[in-house]
Amino acid sequence: MLLRFPYRFQIPLGLALAVMTSALLVSAVAAQISARSARSEIVTTVKQAMVLLAAQAKPLLVADDTWRTYALLRNTAALLPGADASQTRAAILDADGRFVAGSDPARLPTGQKALGLVVDGKALPEAAALRSQVRIESADGGVTMIDPIQSEDGQVLGFVYVDVDGPVFRPDWAAVAKPAMIGALLAAVVLVPAGWLVGERMARPVARVANCIARIGHTDATQLKNELPVETDPELRRISEAVHRLLSEMEVRQAAEQRALSAERLAAVGRITAAVAHEINNPLAGLLTAAQTLRLHGAAESTRLRSIDLIDRGLRQIQTMTAALLPQARVEDRALTPGDLEDVVTLVQPEASRLQVELTSDLEVTSALRAPSAVVRQVMLNLLLNAIKAAGMGGAVHIALAGDAQRIQLAVRNTGARLTHALLESRIAIEGGNDPDGFGLWICREIAVRFGGGFDLIDTPAAATDLQFWIPNREAHEQITAAG
User: Fold this and answer.
1) How far out from the chain centre does Cα 392 lie?
2) pTM of the predicted model, to two decimals?
């Protein structure tokens, strides 16, 4: 029917129909991709939440603290997709597969057995058979995920249980279709009069080529290539072919740029995730030890006050630690004190005891320390944990903190395999090698550079590895901080 109209009608109407059809097809494909991406993002968010729940619920399971477990679940589950509509639930199960606490007590009652039974139409595996994360898909598109919580020696203490209903994963088709329809109608309104004018001038093929050239950089290259006319005139054909080659090169370049951008974003997400996990996990063992000491010997006032103070400092360290991951970050913190060395040694003592490493310390401070405690404590933790790991079973580690009017200096020695300058630089260079063992050392180097100090290996005749970190003290440090 469209062919019965004159060209001045065929061009605008045909162009409008093509645009609307393309918009609908692209919208349908985009909606499918959006639905899949949204499902993948929701599952990833749930997995990350389960990792956090497992880490925080471990001491609560050991202490059999149901109320704090429920508070943890209530606060964490509220952040999950679908929680506001009661379509997502989370629970902590004990080692036998019974609910310890759930974010929705009515559907996840405390004490009721879940593993090995059919819950909401889904057959859950037995507790004894669960040694890794399990994902169960339901007929309505919902997902149930169960992840074991394991102790340091591999014993299963309990399980993290998250149940997401199918409606959470369903995309909002109306919201997706509405912009597409509006865009198609707007495109038709704009292109109909434009097509009318092109139809009036269709005897001028040069105008069509010029139109394509004028739209380069504003319209998709594939669409422009399809619109280029195939001419019989040699000169016009050469122009058309040259424009076609240019558009093909643009397609290749745009595809390469998109791949590079996607790879860069994924790498950035990976580095941030590794940074947060690495830096927050460091002080947890010491905090757990302080909590256990408080639980066992809390009757003594001195022990209780010391443990509470240590827990408070450790938590504040975790709170401010992420800011130090970026060299540009500025951390507002109290000044370093000699007592911080004792705190850090206490935090890493459980790891040293586990590997039977002899841990000693030395303190020589002759002046007031004017440096932020959070970053220096972080350096202490990183160096000590790396040194304990390097020393190995039955080794020895010594840390010395010295301070005078000019500088604050840390020296850490371990008796493990001797570290060379080349190996140290390769571990620090995580940007190229992505070496997780070198991330803590990289943070130490970044902090030293940020405050105008230094971090390097000390050459000693002894068969040991000596690492030294220093930053300026007093006025030098204050000037650098103000300038940053």
Assistant:
1) 30
2) 0.37
